[in-house]
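Components:
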Amino acid sequence: MVTIPAFLIVAVMLFGIGAIGVLISRNIIILFMCVELMLNAANLTLIAFSRALNIPDGHVIVFLVLTVAAAEAAVGLAMVITIFRNRETINIDRFNMMKW
Amino acid sequence: MNLDTIIFAISAVVAIFGAVMMIGQRNPVASVLYLIVSLVAQAVLYVQLGALFLGAVLIIVYAGAILVLFLFVIMLLNLRGTEDLGEGSPPISRFTKFLLSALMVVEFGFVVWSGVFPEAGKTGIDAPAGGFGSVKEVAELIFLKYLYPFELTSILLLVAIVGAVVMAGRSVIVRSSESEAPASREEAAEEARG
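Structure:
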């Protein structure tokens, strides 16, 4: 029988992989995708707990998180386009214009 | 070993495999495609947990819209030779990053295993309650109980649309070293005209 902790472990591994990707990635597009992956791992956790407690309210939270993820992707990619136009790079080590 | 276990094992392995391959790719397009593989497997997990509506939404909205937006941006940027990955000296070494990430994963695993949530271990997924996670039930929650948060997301999306258009639609900002040059393409065009 598949139990809820099995799903939680998958979610943990996905979140960890996303966090590793955010830390080691030099490419801002892959970095954004890792953030999306971490949001999805959180969603999987919400759905697993929702199932375990038999309370479907978690599904609404997942729905709202999906909306936030879409908004974040749109704004983030708009920023990527603007920065790429000015800097001609997507390496995040070069994105230091707000540093000084 | 019943069918549920087999489906869970396959989709879990595929989800994690896709995620690992995603962060390992140098080519962003391949990365997006591996993320789509991972998301489809995660949608199977959603359906196994009874979230039928959200499984469909995950495929339609994520794989169908958000990742297409990523692909669109990658194609638009025309990244020839610009992805200089891993060059220079990052402020934290790569080994330290892996160590910190592994530590975090271990912490998560400890929380899951240490029985913070004891009932979850006894709950199987093979007996979903009637209508749990169906479109009807989720829609009733969204449009009755959580109507105001749902309406607020429409404002969020509106702000995101306006922000994206304002940011991506702006013309080229001239760096301070080139302040003598015309400030934008439009101004250059106007000067050429007038």
